[in-house]
Design a protein that fits this description.
The structure holds 3 protein chains of 3 kinds. Chain A contains 10 helices and 10 strands. By secondary structure, chain A is α/β, with parallel strands linked by helices. By secondary structure, chain C is mainly alpha-helical. In chain C, strand 1 (93-96) and strand 2 form a beta hairpin. Classes of the chains: A alpha/beta, B mainly alpha, C mainly alpha.
Chain lengths: 272, 395, 254
């Protein structure tokens, strides 16, 4: 069962391109964990195809919970998630498999993401689940590793790599599935400045919709023209990243602070 | 308790291998249900990562040393803990995989004895503790304290149960004519003591998990609350911060990450638990001293009998299993035969006294170390001291 | 405390023994140990022959004797047990060195010592010449249920991660002045164990999510298609076949 978004749907967001359905559309999403803690209280978010959007928010704002809804891992609350016209429906396993191919989630801890004995097997895991075999699979693995510059590490066990390398391999594991949208959970956390820049270069070079969940504001400014603020389980603000970061009252209200000495007005943006 | 090759004859080894294989096969099916979690549709997929991580946890926690005093320490075997935390099927799987890997990677436990080891450590402890646990939880009032009490008793019983099965296997396929009745007595006696240690650690660990993530304890799952929707205006930059979204919520007072339902009955029930633990400990002490005095032929024979089991104890209550793989710790002091019994009783009494102190302390709602603990602790250390200095029989 | 991971048995090498596919080696070791266990203990010479067979394999694998012998110390507890047997067992007794020893106990001790030692030696040889990963693949090729292989591989992948977490928690305890001396500290240690369980379980859930995110539906994609050649099986079978011959001779000469 595939629920395509019909013309009757209220498309109030002016950023939607009329031609293609948006890469991601979230409506009224609410969720509580089994232990009783409610993390989302009605999230609305639309990301158009090809956009790079930063999802900003303090610790505990519900960012990771939102991410887990995007590919149907968490369900059962209220609201809907639609990925490129395909609605996330836990009862429809076929559609769910396609959703998970389309939404590539890179988790915060690469150790969680890299569970196979070698880098090659790990990158192959997704495409192999999608049915690829043999030379085609090998080519896909090579392509994904080349995108993040990790080809020569294919036969290493993940736990022998540095943290930055593991993060890049984690991105490759997802790119190997040729996703519609790349969702990165705190991509810059625990990275040294060089690894940080390398990852930024890689992300900018990719031709894919990106939703970057972070509280690293300079990184968001560097990579994403648009930002949304998730605070206490709802979207509290939405707009151009530089404007958001310059709005001190807004930033303060949501416990978002710029690093000492960082002035978003004076930065020359690579994508601007 | 890792049995080596050649300890039991070939037919018994093969038979226990078949038992272990069958139990693992059953568990592979059962674990899917146990690990299915809240969403019914992903049962099978969760088995591998979760059982794997539980196995890794069991493997790691067996390396956590629980000092008994004077340089000796014990560690958890983990059968009862795994059964209570993740359910019997996953428990059997996790322990079986740990034993398999220990045999293949560290040569700990013979390959032909793998079935025996899985049967004893993986199956008997898990099944016995889970059965006892379920029965107790059913009988006792539905409170968190009951879970803790049931954990204590089930862990306590699981260890001597494994020892009894081991003696039975030895009767069937043992390779020396050892007096079985006395072996059984000695095995049960010493393993009851080990069981007390296992029970204390298991109970405290289950309690620690219950306090933080009660939903993760297999026996106490399922607490859900209705969802709350908050609607508020979305701010655009430049217009200042939107009114805090929460302020617009009508149901706000009921919403938000409200604290989990507090276990209000805790102090009272905890006291009961500790009292129950004390009773069980004293019972064990009684049983053990009964066995000790029931051996009529003087200290020499008792020493021999306990010698058998003091060896078993090496794994139950000595150093960490991984320390065995190292070279240095092999030379550790081993408890010699005759004193093992004395130490055992001493430890039991000390543990009982410790529990009593804990009951008092909780009663007084004091968290810091009470001076009353010094007396009992000191006694335990003295008892251990006597044993610790005794050189090992051989090696 | 557990410095176990420093003692992992595998020793990198390129000998013929190292090169054999893992499943042939596992099968060979298992068959060998079964044969040893089935040998009558009275055939003392047979155990000498087994030891020689293992020594030959060890020489072929070029694993230093020191490496093997130190790793075999794991069986020391059982030596202690074996030494006790002659004193405890019943039946006719013999006088030796001024002590009264049970005859069946002596045989029992010999039995456990000989078979146990040979078993440990064979396992140590296997583990020293076969990588972890290869052992898992070998088990898979020997038709161990795939789910069990997956569980074992997750255990190995995350065993280090969790042990590291435990080590960090221990450092955190130590740096805040906590030392565990006796039973009174068990509560704190048990809390550590509880926290470790929660972390392990939650990591398991996150790993599961990461797997689901990449289309996992319960079966691992088959990435391993290595099969052993007949020649490899033959060379692996040499050890258990020779052992079987010794075993039959042992029964014959009884």
């Amino acid at each position: 069962m595939v629920d395509t978004v019909t013309a009757a749907d209220p498309r109030t967001d002016p950023r939607d391109e009329p031609a293609a359905p948006p890469s991601l559309e979230v409506r009224g999403l609410a969720y509580a964990y089994p232990d009783g803690h409610q993390a989302l209280f009605g999230v609305d978010l639309t990301v158009a195809r090809g956009e790079r959007v930063a999802l900003l928010g303090p610790n505990g704002a519900g960012k990771t919970t939102l991410v887990l809804h995007l590919n149907g891992i968490l369900t059962g609350g209220a609201g809907s998630v639609t990925v490129a016209g395909l609605r996330v429906d836990p009862a429809d396993r076929g559609a769910l498999a396609e959703i998970r191919r389309r939404v590539g989630v890179v988790f915060q801890d690469p150790d969680d993401q890299l569970f196979m004995p070698t880098v090659r097997e790990d990158v192959a895991f997704g495409p192999a689940n999608a049915g690829l075999r043999g030379a085609e699979l090998a080519a896909r693995v090579h392509e994904a590793l080349a995108l993040v510059g990790m080809e020569e590490y294919a036969d290493r066990p993940p736990h022998h790599l540095s943290f930055g390398q593991r993060r890049r391999v984690a991105v490759a594991t997802v790119l190997a599935m040729r996703p519609e949208i790349l969702v990165l959970d705190e991509p810059s956390s625990n990275l040294d400045p060089a690894s940080r820049r390398e990852l930024a270069d890689i992300l900018r070079s990719l031709d894919v919709t990106v939703l970057m969940v972070t509280h690293d504001l300079p990184y968001a400014l560097e990579l994403c023209p648009r930002s949304v603020v998730l605070s206490e389980g709802v979207i509290a603000a939405d707009g151009p990243t530089r404007d958001l970061l310059c709005d001190e009252a807004l930033m303060r209200a949501h416990r978002l602070e710029l690093p000492f000495g960082f002035d978003p007005r004076s930065v020359t943006l690579p994508h601007a | 308790m890792h049995v080596p090759d050649g300890f039991l004859n070939a037919p018994v080894s093969v038979a226990t291998g078949a038992v272990a294989a069958a139990a693992v096969a059953v568990s592979l099916r059962g674990a899917r249900r146990e690990l299915a979690g809240t969403a019914a549709y992903h049962g099978a997929e969760r088995t591998a990562p979760l059982a794997g991580l539980v196995a890794a946890f069991v493997f790691a926690v067996q390396m956590l040393n629980f000092p008994v005093g004077a340089g000796t320490s014990g560690h958890l075997m983990g059968g009862a803990l795994a059964a209570i935390l993740v359910g019997p099927y996953t428990g059997v799987l996790a322990l079986s995989v740990v034993l398999l890997m220990q045999a293949l990677l560290f040569a700990d436990g013979g390959l032909t004895a793998l079935g025996t080891n899985i049967t004893l450590i993986g199956i008997v402890t898990v099944v016995v503790s889970y059965a006892v646990f379920r029965a107790l939880v059913r009988v006792l009032p539905r409170r968190r304290g009951s879970v803790t009490a049931a954990a204590f008793v089930s862990a306590l019983l699981s260890v001597p149960a494994a020892a009894a099965v081991f003696t039975g296997l030895y009767a069937l396929g043992g390779t020396a004519e050892v007096p079985l009745g006395k072996v059984l007595t000695a095995m049960l006696g010493v393993h009851t003591l080990i069981g007390v240690g296992e029970a204390l650690i298991t109970t405290a660990t289950v309690g620690a998990v219950l306090a933080v993530r009660p939903d993760l304890v297999y026996a106490a799952r399922g607490l859900a609350r209705p969802l709350v929707l908050r609607s508020g205006p979305v701010a655009t930059p430049g217009s200042g911060p939107a009114p805090r979204a929460t302020a617009a919520t009508s149901t706000d007072s009921a919403a938000g990450p409200a604290p989990a339902p507090a276990p209000a009955a805790r102090p009272a029930s905890a006291r009961k638990v500790w009292a129950g633990g004390l009773a069980a400990t004293l019972l064990c002490a009684g049983v053990v001293s009964f066995y000790a005095s029931a051996a009529p032929d003087g200290l020499e024979k008792v020493a021999g009998e306990y010698g058998i089991s003091s060896q078993e104890e090496e794994h139950g209550l000595a150093d960490s299993p991984l320390a065995d793989y190292g070279v240095a710790s092999i030379a550790d002091e081993r408890l010699s035969g005759g004193l093992a019994g004395l130490i055992g009783v001493g430890t039991t009494l000390a543990a009982g006294a410790g529990v009593l102190v804990a009951v008092r302390r909780r009663g007084n709602a004091g968290a810091a170390g009470a001076p009353a603990a010094e007396g009992s602790g000191g006694r335990a250390e003295n008892a251990e001291d006597g044993a610790g200095r005794t050189p090992a029989g051989s090696a | 405390m557990g410095s176990g991971h420093a003692h992992r048995l595998y020793r990198h090498g390129h000998s013929p023994v190292h090169r054999l596919p893992a499943h042939t080696k596992i099968a060979a070791v298992l068959a060998f140990v079964l044969t040893v266990v089935a040998t009558p203990r009275e055939a003392v010479w047979a155990f000498g022959a087994y030891a020689l067979l293992l020594a030959a394999v060890a020489a072929l694998s070029r694993v230093p004797a020191r490496h093997l012998l130190t790793r075999m110390l794991i069986e020391v507890p059982f030596v202690a047990f074996a030494v006790l047997m002659p004193f405890v067992a019943e039946g006719p007794r013999v006088e030796a060195l001024g002590m009264s020893l049970s005859e069946s106990g002596l045989w029992g001790a010999w039995n456990v010592l000989a078979k146990g030692t040979l078993g440990v030696a064979a396992s140590v040889l296997l583990a020293s010449t076969t990588e972890l990963r290869e052992i898992l693949l070998g088990l898979q090729r020997l038709r161990m249920p795939p789910l069990l292989v997956q569980i074992a591989s997750f255990m190995l992948r995350y065993g280090d991660v969790i042990t590291d977490e435990m080590r960090r928690m221990r450092l955190a305890r130590l740096s805040r002045g906590f030392t565990a001396r006796g039973v009174r500290q068990w509560g704190v240690l048990a809390k550590t164990a509880g926290a470790l369980f929660i972390r392990a379980y939650e990591r398991g859930e996150r790993v599961h999510l990461a797997m689901l995110s990449r289309g996992y539906t319960g079966t691992m994609p088959a990435t391993d298609e290595t099969a052993a050649t007949r020649a490899q099986w033959t060379s692996a079978a040499a050890l258990p076949l020779a052992a079987l011959a010794v075993c039959l001779m042992g029964w014959w000469t009884l």
